[in-house]
Design goal:
376 residues, Cytochrome p450, 5-stranded mixed beta sheet, 14 strands, 52% helix, binds protoporphyrin IX containing FE
C-alpha cells in the first residue's frame, strides 16, 4: 500500500489519478486514511454521525462542530451568504474586476495566481466585508506567507502565520465592538452584532468565522483563478465561447473546469466508531481525509473525465456535500464568474508565456503555484 501522500514536491492530482484505480483508500505518512473515490468521499461526507468534524484542537466556527451546535452557528453564517445578502455586491465585484483587468500590463509576463487571483480575491473580499483598502498589501503578504508555510509543513511557522492573521482580524473587529452605534454599516459590523444562544458572538468566535471566510477562502479564490486562466489560455476556442455565453453557462463551465482540476484538495474527519469504507477497516478515532480533488476525477462517475458541464454538474464535489457543504458557494461562484468575464472582456488574447511552463502547487495545496501568461 502506498504510504506517502503528503510529500512536498509532488503534483498531488497526477499522483491520486495513478493511485485511485487500485487503491480506494490509502494511508499517508501522517497516519491519515485518505479516501480517493467519489462514492466513499460522498458516503463519509454524508455520514455525520460516524465521521465527525471535530478534528482540530482550535476553535473552528462552524466547520469544527457537529450536530445541533453546528446548525446553530451555520444559520448565522448563512444569513450573510445567501442570494439577497450578496446581490448588492455584484456591481461592486464587477467594478473591482474591471479595474484590475484594466491595470494589468499587456505584452509582458504575468502570474495569473499572484498578480490576478490573489489581488482580485483580496480586493473583492475587502469590499464585501467593509475592510479598509489599506489592508490590501498586508493581506497579500499574508497570503503568500500562508502558502509558503502550508507547503513547508512546518507546524510552528503555520501557527505563527495563523496568529498574524488573527491580529489583522482583531484590528477590524475591535473598533466595531468599541464604537457601538457609530460603526460603519457593513458585513463585518453586522456579523459583530450576531447573536447565538441569546448572547453576542464572542471575539474568539468572530475571529474564527472571519478567519474561515478570509484566510481559507482568499487562497481558494486565488487558486481557482489560476486554474481558470491556465485553462482558457490553453483552450482559445473555449475562451471564445465564453465571451458570448450567458452567466449560467459561464458558471457551469467554471464548475466543470474546477471539477477536473480542483485546487481545494481535502477536508478532514475523525471516526467516532470502527468503520468499513472502500473495503478498508478503519478504527474508531482515526483521522480521515475526504480528497475532493481525487473524487472529482473518478473515472467511474465522470465518464472518463470527458468535459461535460451539464452531465457532470450533479456529482460535482468542488464545494463539498452534506451538512458542511460550502456556504460560500454562491459568493465564490459569482466572484469567479465576474473575474473571468472581466478578463475576457478586456483582453483579446490570453496565452501561456512561451518557454515558461505553469508550475503546479504541491501537497497539501492544489491547483497551480504559478501560471505565467501574456495578455495581448
Ligand atoms: C472557490 C472557492 C471555494 C471552494 C472550492 C470551497 C470549498 C469548500 C468545501 C469543499 C467545503 C466543505 C468542507 C467540509 O466538508 O468539511 C467548504 C466549507 C466551507 N466554506 Fe467554502 N469554498 C470556497 C469559497 C468559500 C467562500 C468564499 C466562503 C465564505 C466567504 C466559504 C466558506 C466556507 C465555510 C464557512 C465552510 C464550512 C461550512 C460548514 O462546516 O458548515 N467558502 N468550502
Amino acid at each position: 500500500m502506498p504510504d506517502d501522500l503528503s510529500a512536498t514536491g509532488r503534483d498531488l492530482r497526477a499522483y491520486t489519478d495513478e493511485l485511485r484505480p487500485k487503491h480506494p483508500v490509502i494511508r499517508n505518512v501522517a497516519g491519515e486514511w485518505v479516501l480517493l473515490r467519489h462514492a466513499d468521499v460522498v458516503a463519509a461526507a454524508l455520514d455525520h454521525e460516524r465521521f465527525s468534524s471535530r478534528v482540530s484542537r482550535y476553535l473552528q466556527v462552524p466547520n469544527g462542530f457537529d450536530g445541533e451546535e453546528h446548525t446553530r452557528y451555520r444559520e448565522v453564517i448563512e444569513r450573510h451568504l445567501g442570494h439577497d445578502a450578496l446581490e448588492p455586491f455584484i456591481p461592486v465585484f464587477e467594478s473591482v474586476a474591471a479595474q484590475l483587468m484594466a491595470e494589468l500590463p499587456r505584452g509582458s509576463v504575468l502570474d495569473a495566481v499572484s498578480d490576478i487571483g490573489a489581488v482580485f480575491a483580496v480586493r473583492a473580499q475587502c469590499e464585501w466585508l467593509g475592510w479598509p483598502a489599506e489592508l490590501e498589501p498586508r493581506l497579500l503578504e499574508w497570503m503568500a506567507e500562508n502558502h509558503a508555510a502550508t507547503r513547508s509543513g512546518d507546524h510552528a511557522w503555520m501557527v505563527n502565520v495563523a496568529e498574524q492573521f488573527d491580529k489583522i482580524i482583531l484590528s477590524v473587529i475591535l473598533p466595531r465592538r468599541a464604537t457601538e452605534g457609530n460603526a460603519p454599516d457593513d458585513v463585518t459590523t453586522r456579523l459583530c452584532h450576531e447573536v447565538v444562544d441569546g448572547r453576542l458572538l464572542t471575539e474568539t468566535e468572530l475571529v474564527s468565522i472571519l478567519r474561515n471566510w478570509t484566510g481559507g477562502d482568499l487562497g481558494s479564490i486565488e487558486l481557482c483563478v489560476g486554474v481558470l486562466v491556465a485553462h482558457v489560455a490553453q483552450q482559445p476556442e473555449l475562451a471564445e465561447r465564453l465571451r458570448t455565453a450567458s452567466d449560467n453557462e459561464v458558471e457551469a463551465v467554471i464548475d466543470e473546469v474546477l471539477r477536473l482540476d480542483d485546487p481545494f484538495v481535502s477536508n478532514r474527519r475523525i471516526t467516532t466508531c470502527p468503520v468499513q469504507i472502500g473495503g478498508q477497516d478503519i478504527p474508531s478515532g482515526a483521522r480521515v481525509k475526504l480528497n475532493w480533488t481525487s473524487a472529482n476525477r473518478d473515472e467511474a462517475v465522470f465518464d472518463n473525465n470527458r468535459f461535460d458541464p451539464e452531465r457532470n454538474a450533479a456529482a460535482n464535489l468542488v464545494y463539498g456535500i452534506g451538512k458542511h457543504v460550502c456556504p460560500g458557494r454562491l459568493l465564490a461562484t459569482w466572484e469567479l464568474r465576474i473575474a473571468l468575464q472581466a478578463l475576457l472582456a478586456s483582453v483579446q488574447t490570453i496565452k501561456l508565456a512561451p518557454d515558461q511552463q505553469p508550475e503546479r502547487e504541491v501537497a497539501p495545496v492544489g491547483g497551480y503555484h504559478r501560471v505565467p501568461v501574456i495578455f495581448l
